[in-house]
């Protein structure tokens, strides 16, 4: 089973050569001495022109292990609520396989995670992370999961499931939560709202973040993936979250009346 790219030539270059060159230009100089071991990261998922520098700086600062769980938002509402793809992902820079050993640990009878390919067919939130990870880890395998809107209780169940699977698997695994921040508000308002959320993330308080985003109607699209990632990382022993960079689309477009915020965070 092959999962074809959904947003190549739209969110990022579809040409392998151009994509490789683009990522090489975006990534900071690699140093194995400065790359950090991490349990989780938050990385944006807009077009590379807008959010690529934040994603590159964030993921480029991490020693990427061979297996990465990528948690994305289901923007389209197709498929199961917590959907894991087991297909081989055909990407411009080469095929990426799913880690079926870890997938099996996530798909036990009664798990909140289900195998569903429909949810992934046109979804970009996981896909845009993959080329950066490929460039940083040549032996990459992934666990692609897209999540619809779920309750906090279900976030806790999913976070515990992911942490338990990683513990049983027994090798290094990175969790990447794919999310943009506030959408289509002025730079002033977006920065204020996003700063509020990021301060809570830095305190590793998933419940407070989940409640703040919903109660204050902050348009952070990946609040669910980020909540799950923090829960899983804390279960695995995470002690700190570090904001790597925050910016918005106005830095590129020049329009500061209607921006989308982008943040990169490393949790370790």
Question: Can you describe what's shown?
Answer:
This protein has helices at residues 16-26, 48-59, 100-106, 130-136, 152-169, 187-202, 206-215, 223-235, 250-253; strands spanning 2-3, 40-43, 67-73, 82-84, 88-91, 94-98, 114-115, 141-147, 173-178, 183-185, 241-248, 259-267. By secondary structure, it is of the alpha/beta class. The protein has a single domain (2-267), classed as 3-Layer(aba) Sandwich (Protocatechuate 4,5-dioxygenase, Chain B). Strands 1, 2, 3, 4, 5, 6, 7, 8, 9, 10, 11 and 12 form a twelve-stranded mixed β-sheet that branches. Strand 5 (88-91) and strand 6 form a beta hairpin. Helix 5 packs across helix 8 and helix 7 packs antiparallel against helix 8. The termini are far apart.
| Major sheet summary line | 12 strands, mixed
Low-pLDDT ranges: none
The CATH homologous superfamily is called LigB-like
Percentage of residues in helical conformation:
25-40%
Q: Compute the number of structural domains.
A: 1
What class would the helix/strand composition place it in? alpha/beta
What is the CA-CA span between the terminal residues?
A: 34 Å
Q: Would you state the CATH class?
A: Alpha Beta
What average pLDDT do the residues reach?
Answer: 96
Output the CATH topology. Answer: Protocatechuate 4,5-dioxygenase, Chain B
Strand count: 12
- What's the oligomerization state? single chain
CATH architecture designation: 3-Layer(aba) Sandwich
Beta percentage is 15-25%
- H-E order: EHEHEEEEHEHEHEEHHHEHE
| Radius of gyration, whole Å | 17 Å
Total count of helical runs of at least 4 residues: 9
């Amino acid at each position: 089973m092959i999962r074809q790219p959904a947003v190549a030539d739209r969110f990022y270059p579809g040409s392998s050569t151009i994509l490789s060159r683009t990522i090489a230009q975006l990534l900071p100089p690699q140093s194995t001495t400065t790359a950090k071991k991490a349990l989780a990261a938050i990385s944006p998922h807009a077009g590379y022109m807008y959010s690529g520098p934040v994603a590159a700086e964030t993921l480029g600062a991490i020693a990427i292990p061979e297996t990465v769980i990528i948690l994305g938002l289901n923007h389209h509402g197709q498929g199961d609520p917590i959907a894991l793809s087991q297909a081989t992902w055909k990407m411009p820079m080469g095929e990426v396989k799913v880690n079926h050993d870890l997938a099996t640990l996530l798909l036990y009878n009664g798990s909140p995670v289900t195998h569903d390919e429909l949810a992934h067919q046109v979804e970009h939130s996981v896909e845009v992370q993959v080329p950066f990870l490929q460039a940083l880890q040549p032996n990459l395998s992934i666990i692609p999961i897209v999540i619809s809107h779920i309750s906090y209780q279900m976030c806790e169940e999913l976070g515990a499931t992911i942490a338990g699977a990683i513990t049983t698997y027994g090798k290094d695994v990175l969790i990447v939560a794919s999310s943009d921040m506030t959408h289509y508000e002025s730079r002033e308002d977006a920065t204020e709202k996003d700063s509020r959320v990021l301060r809570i993330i830095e305190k590793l308080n998933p419940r407070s973040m989940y409640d703040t985003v919903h109660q204050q109607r902050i348009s952070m699209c990946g609040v669910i993936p980020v909540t799950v990632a923090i829960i899983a990382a804390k279960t695995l022993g995470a002690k700190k979250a570090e904001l790597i960079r925050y910016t918005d689309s106005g830095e590129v477009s020049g329009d500061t009346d209607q921006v989308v915020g982008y943040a990169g965070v490393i949790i370790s």
